[in-house]
Batch of 4 targets.
Target 1
Amino acid sequence: MTVGILHISLFIPESDSLKSKRMVMHSIKARLRTQFNVAVAQLEDGDKWQKAALAVVGVEKSRDHMNSVLSEIVNFVERYYSVHLIDYEMEFL
């Protein structure tokens, strides 16, 4: 069994308030949970309007499959219309 952890840094160019940032982040988190069956939590940068960080955690039988799922998540976030992916980091336990 492999636990995969993905740290994602995002830029939200259209965000002009914490409220609009929360709306975008809520949407992204809900879609990731539903589509990929992973746990998602928002991390630091809570008081910055246009920056956000997420932690995504999943469990799979093999490391290769976990790597594939996390890569699909990165691709999904890159295609998401209202955010820009700044950086990401994957860990496997």
Target 2
Amino acid sequence: MAFTVTQITAYLKNLLEGQPQLRNLEVEGEISEFRRVNHLYFTLIDRDARLSCVMFAGDMTLGMRCTVSEGLRVKVTGSIRVYPKGGAYQLYATRIEAVGAGAVNEQLLRLERKLRAEGLFDDAHKKPLPPYPKRVGLVTACPSAVLEDMRRVFRERNPYIQLVLSPCRVQGAGASQEMLRALHRLERAGVDVIIIGRGGGGRDTLFDFSDEQLVRAVYNCEIPVVSAVGHEINYLLIDYVADVQVQTPTMAAIAVAYSAEEFQATLVNSHSSLVKAVCRAIDGERERLAHMQQILRYVSPAEQLKRRRETLDRAKDRLSELTAKAVVDARRETAEAEREIRNSIRESIRSYRNRLDQWETGLKAMSPYRLLEQGYAFVTVDGRPVKSIADLPAGALMKGYLADGQFEAEVVSTQERPES
């Protein structure tokens, strides 16, 4: 006999949900795969297993007793049920609260928001590291591998830097207070920079580095502080408030300890640059002195009298040259002007003669005598020129002029010229 998927799922649903120990049970685990889409979906995990969970929106108002976030350890109250469409069982949560390390994480979140709101994490409060520290304070455990690593780096890079150790516990009960007292001891010791460091460890062993008193002490410290706690997660409040944060104490030692060889090379370069600068300054002063000597010679009375005499002699010579040149130029200009005037007069006379010849030719061409010489006659009646036969009535006495004389005649008859 074959069963349907629905039958099997229904059987398992009734089997699980019928168990009283699976109703209103409490489950502890770490939150993973957290997401919120109207309802709250997440997975509870431990070292060997995982459990899918859901909290409906209606249960979230009263059931959410902490701020849910990835990695938070919580205690979830709810019932195991089967979701047929998904073919899986889930914990339907009605209450979520932080427990153990999760409760501490929630406390740290609230403290972080508080300190951030006060401005303790602002970059404007960060102090730069001194470029050449002479005394470096170390807040760490003694003896410890971390301390030996930092001492080794300082010996290799610069053995002249004095290390001032302020030993303390860096984990366990009361560690934060010991680190706080160690920090204050170094402030009174007058070091140039302070390194607070320890090696790696589990998250639950690093909470002392987020202690509020220690964080505020680092913020108020007038000496630059380097946080060098070896850890993978970046959730230590001392990292946020320190002036410089590095991943390991070894990196902190490298950041603080300037190289003695590099410093020596810098000194050699600086000495060379200083010598060159002094030499340039001496050369510049020599040039300035020589220039001042020239100025003094230039403004001395004897030098000024000498220059004025020389100027006067040059002016005299120049005046003589200009006078002689002016006479020569005047003579030359006079001769040239005379030649130009004569040429102009001759050109004017020639021009006038040409114009008179043209006028004479024109007048001769316009003379009425030229027409008379060609056989024409000029006729008048009572002194008026005759222009038409209408001016010559019969019996009129007319006078005519020819090239070699004149005549008088009486008009007998006239005849108009026929149309052509």
Target 3
Amino acid sequence: MLAHLLAQVGIESVVLEDRSRAHVEQRIRAGVLEQPTVDLLDQLGVGERMHREGLVHHGIEIRFDRQRHRIALSDLTGGKAITIYGQQELVKDLIAARLAAGAPILFEVENVRLGGLDTQRPTISFRDDGRNETLRCSYVAGCDGFHGVSRPTIPDGVLRTFERDYPFAWLGILADVAPSTEELIYASHERGFALHSLRSPSISRLYLQVAPDEDLAAWSDDRIWSELRARLASDGWSLADGPIVDRSLTPLRSFVVEPMQYGRLFLAGDAAHIVPATGAKGLNLAVSDVRALADAITLHERTGDARGLAGYTARCLRRIWRVQDFSWWMSAMLHRLPEEDGFAGRLRRAQLEWLVASEAAARSLAENYVGLPFS
């Protein structure tokens, strides 16, 4: 995304990827795109397949006590919506467009090392197809995830870390069966949270709240479907099941580092922050980061004004902490905590009842869910 944004204004870049093209195009990840993300993809000219194959949702459903409550996202936000489009599909589109433009992406690079970050000409050394290579850059964008090399390269004492581990994880499945719903269902149940999402008209994505140390091997297909039916149960509605083609266990956590930059290195996405999956914000927050970074680099290259670069962290953190709060709030409201007593349970129920009864409360959720403006 960053490379495409820079190319629009004539700034060259090189994209380095340590996995194969096939791997990154097939890796199953999130699939809820906020309205600002969709609009940016259109601006870049890479949204055609997304509009053709993606699923536009104008609402979501909150379910508890076997009752169904619709949050009308578009009605509450002046027509904004979300689009269901798998992250791997978005990655395919971005890679294809970049290669079609003749711009460089180097796959399966090894031994990546960063140097001279506190100078105006940092370097990236790596091994590509058996050869040692070095790039001299004006800027380095660390979009390499939580386990990448960028953040650990920053000297000790520079970064401050904020994190919280949640006492639950998500058991996620991809099933070869048509979804049993037209919009996402967020279900709060005494046995734990469940989510019915979608990937296409014929593929369903579903999640169950489980313990962080849950053993996936203990969950047979029959057990998974039985638990999903129990937690998603509603009068007059039934869940269709089918072959499970992928399953995963994802612990939920919050993580933020400040600042998100050191010299000419700028962190973006999971390299700098992780949010609980409940609010469907991880991908969209990464897009927001690189939009801010592209603006800052463009301003500096065109005018020599470095204020955008200096203010990159502050600009990003305003949105990051808003999203952290929203994701934490949704997680706390919908999940049953292991140590939850009767008082805490009643508080969660009061939150759910207020959300579905108050237009103001529903609008607050809707505005955050469809995506706050990048600015």
Target 4
Amino acid sequence: MIIKPKVRGFVCVTAHPAGCAAHVDEWISYVKSNGSIPNGPRKVLVIGASTGYGLASRISAAFGSGAATLGVFFERPSEEGRTATPGWYNSIGFTKAARAEGLYAKNINGDAFSDEIKAQALETIRRDIGQVDLVVYSLASPRRTHPRTGTVHKSVLKPVGSAYTNKTVDTDKGIVSSVTIEPANEHEIADTVAVMGGEDWELWMNALSGARLLAPGARSVAYSYIGPELTWAIYKNGTIGLAKNDLERAAGSIDSMLKAIGGGKAFISVNKALVTQASSAIPVVPLYISILYKIMKANGTHEGCIEQMQRLFARQMYAATGPSFDESGRVRLDNLEMRPEVQASVARIWPDVTTENLAALTDIAGYRGEFLKLFGFGMPGIDYGAEAEPHVPMA
């Protein structure tokens, strides 16, 4: 079939297998171009390994330090007349590339929140690689079935306390408008924390520890975002921010556990605002990212997912001096985004953006390009007018 992008709202419902593989190869080439990571991880579990920061972490570990990697994700294969999800194709592309270089790479496709998938991962680690020295927790899911209660929790992207009104942009149509989001109720807040907070990360780490599958000195990292005050009502102080607060609570608990069993370390990496499938769904944020990209590209300080993760691994987590932490014990990969002069430029541009001047004042074209690349479109060297085979078995 000929596969073209079909965008509906903040998601593309098609993905191109060759384009996704090319995107993965582009990231691999970037990591290789930066050289090996001395004393990097050797045996890595990535929970949420198929897209975004999770995929970039897996690539950085494998192609930066030759690590064996086990990736856990929940992706849909192709069906009759329907492509697979991009994460499915990404994982195939990564696995083929890793194995071509003699690297161990295995995948578990299923609900990472479930006890069954945890047990499968533990058995695979025990059988194949013995212990892991790094666990990356990078799940992004809209819902979670609790493994103990069976309750289905659904996350929401809402402010807390009062309604919030600000500008947003329809990135597909290029229309700038005002959006008002009603505040979350207590049940919605609790549900969002249950899905996006730290409980599941703790369950994974406790299971690995209980099975003695964590190597001495093992590390674990999860990812968060803070952003500028402009986005705080919908992010830092909203339901997702409360969930991220719980993720930081979990980081402290896991850090204590790792120190007790072998001198390891767990922490949160606060990353830059980027075009991801998750960020595209948050009102206000896509417009902020479009402005931010224009400013940071002009300054020569722009980074994407792979640049951020390669920097985390090479210059923070496995640097000779060790990672640098802020006053709350977090690594701040958002340091370039949060420079005062960058945020002053965003604040100056924000009130002037309209539908008419969107293209001039922001990098909406760059946003759209990065968004489509998430689904394998817009990659150089790919003939998107040619027939493509959507049915690709997991490697």
